[in-house]
Amino acid sequence: MSRKIIITCAVTGSVHTPSMSAHLPITPDQIAEQAIEAAEAGAAILHLHARDPKGGRPSFDPAVYREFLPRIHAATDAVINITTGGSVLMTIEQRLSAAFDVSPEMASCNMGSINFAFHTMLDKVEETKYDWEREYVERTRANIFRNTFADIEDLLARLGRAHDTRFEFECYDVGHLYNLKYFVDRGLLKGPLFLQFVMGILGGIGPDPENLFHMKRIADKLFGDSYQWSVLGAGRHQMPLAMQAALMGGNVRVGLEDALSIGPGRLATSNAEQVRMIRGVLESLGLEIATPGDVRDMLSLKGRQQVRL
Ligand code: KMH
Ligand code: ZN
Q1: In this structure, CATH architecture of domain 4-302
Q2: Cβ of 81 below 6 Å from ligand 1
Q3: Which atom of ligand 1 is found nearest the CA of 10?
Q4: How far apart are CA 207 and CA 48, in angstroms?
Q5: What's the CA gap between 46 and 48, in Å, rounded?
Q6: Secondary structure of 126-160 in the HEC alphabet?
Q7: Which listed ligand is nearest to 167 at the C-alpha?
Q8: Ligand 1 and 207: CB distance under 6 A
Q9: Ligand 1 contact via 170 beta carbon (within 6 Å)
Q10: Could you state, in order of their start, the residue ranges of all structural domains in the chain?
């Protein structure tokens, strides 16, 4: 039997702003429509953030999440994965509020504090659509994306153990693998683990192919064969790193949260376009695409009936 590969689609995120691409979903309708289309195209996991419908700022408001999550839940079988990273301007409690409200099958868990900077992203945009955009990206120059050991321990207890939510463990550098091992050794989380190697963020590990080999080598050493892994390459590194991951036995994450383009100089017109592109590549390599049901088995998820939607 051929290996089944998980496609995660990260639909909108909090890095990009509306002026960077007209195709970035902002309103609840747009987020729901693009997420549903991405699931139909083959994404088994949908990683979701919310945005203020007026102006597109990242939002933590559970009420805004509730304007699109029930529609996605009703229209697809996809595993809903809610961010706990939120955005650079949110407090830790704000970042967690939607996940506590919805009790999802999966949520992100960021494995360490880093400089997470994207202050150059609007350099080539002459005029922004909204006032907040320039100040927002500029603030990331001095920002620390906070995920201390205490923060992570709290998240594992209050969401992992209390809600039986499993995590997409986002590892932005090799040290984050050791941080995860610290929690595994203390029995603070349940397997099977799902690691997301995040590559190409300014402040994290670079998007070089040899870094992916190294991350994988160290993860093998720390976790043996008791983990699943995936790669998220930022910007133009998205597709090349996804292809490398697939060839190395890993899973892939695409979506407009991480990259707005679909090729040199060409904006993706939707999340589904990226999903269809990587799916075509994977199938041409003889790989089978995991269904949401496969993912529930592979990651021992609690099931969609347990989600409060
Ligand atoms: N956009 C990714 C690089 C989260 O949502 O928790 C970071 C991310 C964090 O996905
Ligand atoms: Zn995210």
Answers
A1: Alpha-Beta Barrel (3.20)
A2: no
A3: 10
A4: 23
A5: 6
A6: CCCCCCHHHHHHHHHHHCEECCCHHHHHHHHHHHH
A7: 1
A8: no
A9: yes
A10: 4-302
